[in-house]
Amino acid sequence: MSNPRRIMVDDTDSDIRYTGSWVLDQTGDLNSRGNFGPVYRNSVHSANTDASFSYSFNGTSIGIWGSNNIANNSGVITPSWACYIDNIKMPDRDPFQFFENNWLLCTQDNLVDGPHELTVNVSTTGQQFYFDYIGYFPSSTVSLSSKTLNVDHLDPAIQYGAGWQALGSTADMTSVAGTELTFEFIGTSLSWLGLTTPDFSRNASNAIFSVDGGSPATFQLHGLSPGSNTAGYNEVFFTTPNLTMGKHTLKVVHLGSGAQTPLTLTNMILVNGTFPSTPSNTQTTQ
Question: What domain of life is recorded for the organism (predicted)?
C-alpha cells in the first residue's frame, strides 16, 4: 500500500545520478515564462547535448516534470526524451509547441509496490532540455520525515468549511467572505498554491492565514491583469514562516466577496512532513 501524498524530489537532490553535461540553473530566468508558474525551488538542470539521469525509489507511481522547450526543425522534434522504469519504456506524451514550466514530461502509474529504478535519456541537437523535479507516491514503508510532500486539494486531512466548492477536478474555491479552511499537519513549513482564470473577477481581494492560533497574516489575491485572458497556474499565494518540527494547525479565512477574486487551492507543499492522521474530508458547497 502506498502513501496518499506524493514525495517531491528536487533536481538538486543528491540521490539523483546525472550522466553527461548538465548545468544547474538557479538564476530564476525561466520563472516568468509561460503561465504554469515558476520552476520548483528556483532550480532546474539543463542539457543541450545528449545526457541522462537516474533515480531509485520505492513506490507505486511516478512522474517527471520539467520546462517544456521543444523546437520543430523540419519535422524533427528536439529535444526528445525517453523515460524508463526498471528498463521498461514509459508511455510517450504528445509534444507541445509552447514553453511551459511545471510540465509533465512522463508518468507511470500502477507500479508493483516496491523498489524501482527510473532512467531518463535525453537527445538534443542543441535545444535546451530542462529537468525540474520528480514526484512519486511512496510505499507505506518509506519514512516521510525530512521529505517534501505534495498535498492535493482533495487530501482527507483538509477541512473545508461552508462556502467552499469544487472548481472542476483541479481545485477548490470560495468567493464567500468569512469562509474557513483548517489543515492539521506535521512539518516545518507549508506553501499554498492556487490558480486564477479569466472567469474570475479581476478585483483584488484579501485572505488571512494563521498557524497554531498565532497572529494572522494577510495575503492578497490579485486576479489577472486587465486584458489578460490566460489562466495562471501554480501560483504560490503564501508560505508560512519556518516552524519547529512537530504538529501544527493551519487556518485560512477568505475576506473577499463574489465581486472580487476568489480564493483557490490546488495543492500545498509541505516540508519535512509526515501523515499523522486522516480525518474524513469535509466540504460544504454554496
Answer: Eukaryota
